[in-house]
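User: Show me a protein chain along with its predicted structure.
Assistant: Here is one chain, sequence first, then structure tokens.
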Amino acid sequence: MAARLVAVDDAAAAVLAPYTKIRERDLVGRERLFVAEGEVVVRVLAERSRLRVRSLLVEQRRVDAIADVLERLPDGVEAYVVPQAVMDGVVGFAIHRGILALGERGPEQHAATLVREAQIVVGLVGLTNHDNVGGIFRSAAAFAADAVLFDEETCDPLYRKAIRVSAGAALLLPFARVRTAHELIDVASDAGLTPIALTPRGDEAITELPRGRYALMLGTEGPGLPDEVLARTRRVRIDMPGKLDSLNVGVAGAIALHAVTRKL
């Protein structure tokens, strides 16, 4: 087993076409592919993820850094080795991490299946910031959440920036998209999970929750979760004695996950 090294010196080469203009948000929609960026993330994809590596794009000075990864990849996976100028020309901007991988999304996972035996699930509603989504995936993996569900408005966790911010957690943690927050609540409730909504208007502190199986609902910064969603959930808050009554959703999600997983 080993990837095949292929030297390429032309940014317009056909084999590099899937990597072109990776700023485009529709990349994940083309042939159900995504791009992983940087050595740390590519190692997660190649060594620990359920998702498959289709090919790699490696700046020629970085080949030795991932030689062990290349040796363990299946035969037939090609690693295109290019000079820095070609890599910059392919992706459309100066990129210094020097290692990219093209991954295959695999089949969609079903929300009801993912949460059937879950203890802790994270539900994302209307989160359109890739940094926040990536950060929440990282926290969810760190605190051993079983899965992440998200509605149609939430951005794709396999977008390049979300994967990078998640430190590869988006490649490890099972996730599924549902149509609406209400469907998310229905799926969680049908599996015996208690939906809890994080909100400054919470009726109880999250640290006061009893032991249980929970679906932690997180809404977008500012508006938060819609009132009709809050009405269907157990509303919890993070007590803050300081001069501000709100946190970045990624930070709040990490604190809440720590509190909830201590109840397991």
